């Protein structure tokens, strides 16, 4: 019974099996702990015994979920890119004419109204830019960079973060092939999310960024000791427009954009989290 290891207890399986009161001819998926199994049971002719075929399909189901998510994101990306282009043209006119009016306006009350219009228009522009990145297609501009140097360059913009300690652990600092501009967005989004989660919740004081190489893969992990993500929403964090932030504080596209960029590099991004203890985002890329 060596199959039952790594936290999968024999008692858990037996309980599920003996709770099955029907004659399950055909396939049925059951879940035990964090694993999924395809189970088939056949009653032997004497009616007293059973033949049971058990197959671990956890990885298969995870892969199917990833493929479905990628397909949904591709469709949404196409739509988002089209919408963003349609919005961008009239928005440019709004911003441009508002700037002209501000130059000529002398009445303070009217100037205040114009500044509010400008602030709102700029916020729409930020969302439109996110949509354009989210729906971006075309060739990536790959280049070979040293991973340690690349991340250190990104971290320069976080040197003024005094209330939260950023810890580096570069087990691998060698070459990696990425689109520098787009991957910069990925690292920044993950770091900003971790810092904002700690500040908004008042829980935690540290963000760590680690790199490592395992066989043919390079891993980048960004971990915080902040509030963590509730299990009920953990599976939705990469969905576009999904956010737990207040209205106006986020478009819900940051993690979706990061996901799209990593996938376009032929890599994977995943998250694990425990509420009250922190969150870890893991990026996996192919080694050179």
Task: Characterise this structure.
The chain is α+β, with helices and mostly antiparallel strands and 288 residues long. The chain has three domains: 10-56, no CATH class; 62-134, Signal transduction histidine kinase, dimerisation/phosphotransfer (DHp) domain (Helix Hairpins, Orthogonal Bundle), CATH 1.10.287.130; 142-286, Heat Shock Protein 90. It contains seven helices and ten strands. Strands 5-7-8-10-9 form a five-stranded mixed sheet. A three-stranded antiparallel sheet has the order 1-2-3. A two-stranded antiparallel ribbon has the order 4-6. α4 packs across α5.
From the helix content, strand content and strand pairing, which structural class follows?
alpha+beta
What characteristic shape results from the CA principal axes? globular
Query: Could you give the distance between the termini?
Result: 40 Å
CATH superfamily (homologous) name of the largest domain: Histidine kinase-like ATPase, C-terminal domain
| Mean of pLDDT | 81
């Amino acid at each position: 019974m060596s199959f039952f290891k790594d936290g999968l207890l024999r008692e858990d399986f037996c309980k599920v099996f003996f709770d099955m009161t029907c004659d399950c001819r055909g396939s049925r998926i059951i879940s035990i702990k964090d694993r999924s199994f395809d189970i088939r049971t056949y009653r032997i002719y004497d009616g007293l015994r059973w033949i049971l075929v058990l197959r671990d399909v956890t990885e298969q189901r995870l892969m199917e979920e990833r493929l479905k998510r990628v397909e949904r994101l591709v469709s949404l990306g196409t739509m988002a890119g089209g919408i963003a282009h349609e919005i961008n043209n009239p928005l440019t006119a709004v911003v441009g004419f508002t700037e002209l009016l501000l130059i000529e306006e002398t009445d303070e009350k009217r100037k205040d109204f114009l500044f509010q219009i400008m602030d709102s228009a700029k916020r729409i522009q930020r969302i439109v830019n996110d949509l354009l990145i989210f729906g971006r297609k075309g060739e990536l501009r790959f280049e070979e960079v040293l991973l340690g140097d690349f991340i250190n360059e990104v971290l320069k913009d976080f040197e003024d973060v005094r209330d939260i300690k950023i810890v580096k652990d570069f087990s691998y600092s060698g070459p990696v092939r990425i689109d520098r501009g787009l991957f910069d967005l990925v690292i920044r989004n993950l770091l900003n999310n971790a810092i904002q989660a700690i500040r908004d919740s008042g829980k935690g004081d540290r963000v760590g960024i680690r790199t490592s190489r395992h066989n043919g893969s390079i891993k980048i992990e960004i971990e915080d000791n902040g509030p963590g993500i509730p299990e009920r929403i953990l599976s939705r964090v990469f969905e576009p427009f999904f956010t737990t932030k207040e209205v106006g504080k986020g478009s819900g596209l940051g993690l979706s954009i990061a996901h799209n960029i990593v996938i376009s590099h032929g890599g994977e991004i995943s998250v694990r989290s425990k509420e009250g203890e922190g969150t870890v985002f893991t990026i996996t890329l192919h080694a050179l």
